[in-house]
Amino acid sequence: MPEPLARSLRVTGFSLGVAFFVILAAFPFYWMAITAFKQNSDLYDITNIPFWFNEPPTLEHIRYLFKETLFARWLSNSLIIGVCVTAITLVTAVPAGYSLARMTSRKGEALGIAIFLTYLVPPTLLFLPLSRIVTELGLQNSMWSLVLVYPTFTIPFCSWLLMGFFKALPIEIEEAAIVDGCSVFCAFIKMAVPLSLPAILTVVIFTFTLTLQEFVYALTFISSSDQKPITLGVSTDLIRGDVFFWGEIMAGALIAAVPVAIAYNLFLDRFIAGITGGAVK
Amino acid sequence: MAAVLTRDIVKTFDEINAVNGISLRVPDGEFMVLLGPSGCGKTTLLRIICGLEQQTSGDLLIGGNIVNDIPPRARGIAMMFQSYGLYPHYTVRNNIAFPLRTQRMPSQDIQKKVGWAAQLLGIGHLLDRRPRQLSGGERQRVALARALVREPTALLLDEPLSNLDAKLRTSARQEIKNFQQRVGLTTIYVTHDQVEAMGMGDRIAVIDHGRVRQVGTPIEIYQDPADLFVATFVGAPPMNIVTCNGGGYLGFRPENFLPRDMIGDDGVTEFSFRVDRSEYLGSERIVYGVMDGFDSKQPITAKLPPAHVAEGSVRPGEWHRFAVKNSELRRFEASGNRSTRH
């Protein structure tokens, strides 16, 4: 086979492969986006081609979400829960990860793994004892129960992630600061924290996304509509009996997904550095 | 500035003695080099002096005061790390200013001090750069400026030249030494490189397995090694050591082991030497071989001046009459310690 032909075949093959995976990954989002703007008559007419608009697009579903449901409330609930859980996780996991990386000998390694293992316990097992705690604290049917519960799985994972990152920071920088007049805590605040910003950013994005998409605990602990986060609200209040409000469900999912997608794209490089930073020397 | 004194310092890690009872006196203004192979405990001792490690037992005195329980920040000691430990997120200016900021010095004074230190080390033009934009030599100077800016009681240097290439190392060695003499700062310098130790130290402490084997001026260390370890660790090639008939060892430096006719007649010991291999190194010719009637673990080496010894006169396989002046012979007991000198 002549060389130029072989090369163009290779390029074409590669492009086709990439195209396949792009379509595979992007299709659900595309489906979500067009469904959110389709008129119901378009949506439910099975003779229509489902992949494109057969009638003019509409904002009716979005209007319905904001006017006829508590969607705005769910959004703000999710936001409040996300911000609180992220703050709690940062305040706890950053010092925890640092201590595990720096202040223990070999026991620290085992402790780090043990902490990570707690992340692997499935929530379906944990919500029974946790519901007892939530009731004892009088937080049943309140979104604050989620602020209490979510850190149980964000803190272990984030401590572990940060431990790996702190271990990769050269210790001389902190030691130099200590000799130059810092206490251990001051060296941590002035050196370790600013230098691990990529990892801390990763923790922020990770925690926020995790709380945004959590479903099981929310379903267990919350029943009033005005306390629901967005995942729960959309899937419980927009499915009534066997009636699915497809247009509204998709519009709700789209609105929740767009800010996260933008955040990911802005911080993608740093995010990857945060995830791989601790693993690779 | 102050004298540093360690009194029987022991440091144990997981039941291994990294430092095994070191007593060392570094007078005010002295340049003391801790020399030893890697893993001998010299860096651990340095870290104990600056307070990054706590000794298991023993006392540390700085300027006459016991500082065992005083945290590093209050000891007033500066340390320069092997990798420099510059703060990557600060500019050079802020790196140098950092030790002053932690002392809450007024910012006007900080400006003045930073300017002084930068000028002293010739890095005034680098003040607004960040460490990653600097070359190895520039980083070293910034680290030195940061160490000096608050006028420490003593300066500790942990293998500061090991990250530089060979050429730069020579000039950096000179710079550090000049600088130390100018400020008269008590300095403790850790290295495994004997050239650095010999070239820079007022005195050298040779350390092995957590113990001081000998403390002395470079000349004392080289001419009168206290034991076999010091004799073979210092010098390149190291001192020749051969076993004596009556037990114990006999040592002599390669440069003192010369063809018989190059040495005068007074007080000379002759040996029969078979040449196995010879290396021409420009300023010297190193000859390897064995000696008739003596056992040695290493090949015997002779360092000959090429100007006086022609290529053809020491061919491999030939036996030659070599000799050492009696005054250059060193005797060691079977235990490895130096025999009493006569």
Largest sheet of chain A: 2 strands, antiparallel
Instruction: Work out the oligomeric state of the chains in this entry.
Output: heterodimer
CATH first level of the largest domain in chain A: which class? Mainly Alpha
Strand and helix order of chain A: HHHHHHHHHHHHHEEH
Largest sheet of chain B: 6 strands, mixed
Classify the beta-strand content of chain B into a percent band. 25-35%
Average pLDDT confidence of chain A is 86
Please describe what this structure looks like.
The complex is a heterodimer of chains A (281) and B (342). With 281 residues, chain A is mainly alpha-helical. Chain A has 14 helices and two strands, in the order αααααααααααααββα. In chain A, strands 1-2 form a two-stranded antiparallel ribbon. In chain A, a hairpin with a 2-residue loop joins strand 1 (239-240) and strand 2 (243-244). In chain A, helix 13 (230-237) packs antiparallel against helix 14 (246-277). Chain B is an alpha+beta fold. Chain B has two domains: 4-228, Rossmann fold; 237-332, OB fold (Dihydrolipoamide Acetyltransferase, E2P) (Beta Barrel). Chain B has helices at 42-50, 72-75, 92-101, 107-120, 136-148, 166-183, 194-200, 218-223, 228-233, and strands spanning 4-13, 16-26, 31-35, 57-62, 65-66, 77-80, 154-158, 187-191, 203-208, 211-216, 240-243, 249-252, 258-259, 268-280, 285-291, 300-304, 319-325, 330-332. In chain B, helix 3 (92-101) crosses helix 4 (107-120), helix 3 (92-101) runs parallel beside helix 5 (136-148) and helix 4 (107-120) crosses helix 5 (136-148). Classes of the chains: A mainly alpha (281), B alpha+beta (342). At the A-B interface, helix 9 and helix 10 of A face strand 6 of B.
Question: How is the secondary structure organized here?
Answer:
The complex is a heterodimer of chains A (281) and B (342).
Chain A: H1 3-36, H2 40-43, H3 60-68, H4 71-102, H5 106-119, H6 123-136, H7 144-149, H8 151-168, H9 171-179, H10 184-195, H11 197-213, H12 216-221, H13 230-237, E1 239-240, E2 243-244, H14 246-277
Antiparallel strand pairs in A: 1-2
Helix pairs in contact in A: 1-14, 3-14, 4-5, 4-8, 4-11, 4-13, 5-8, 8-11, 8-14, 9-10, 11-14, 13-14
Chain B: E1 4-13, E2 16-26, E3 31-35, H1 42-50, E4 57-62, E5 65-66, H2 72-75, E6 77-80, H3 92-101, H4 107-120, H5 136-148, E7 154-158, H6 166-183, E8 187-191, H7 194-200, E9 203-208, E10 211-216, H8 218-223, H9 228-233, E11 240-243, E12 249-252, E13 258-259, E14 268-280, E15 285-291, E16 300-304, E17 319-325, E18 330-332
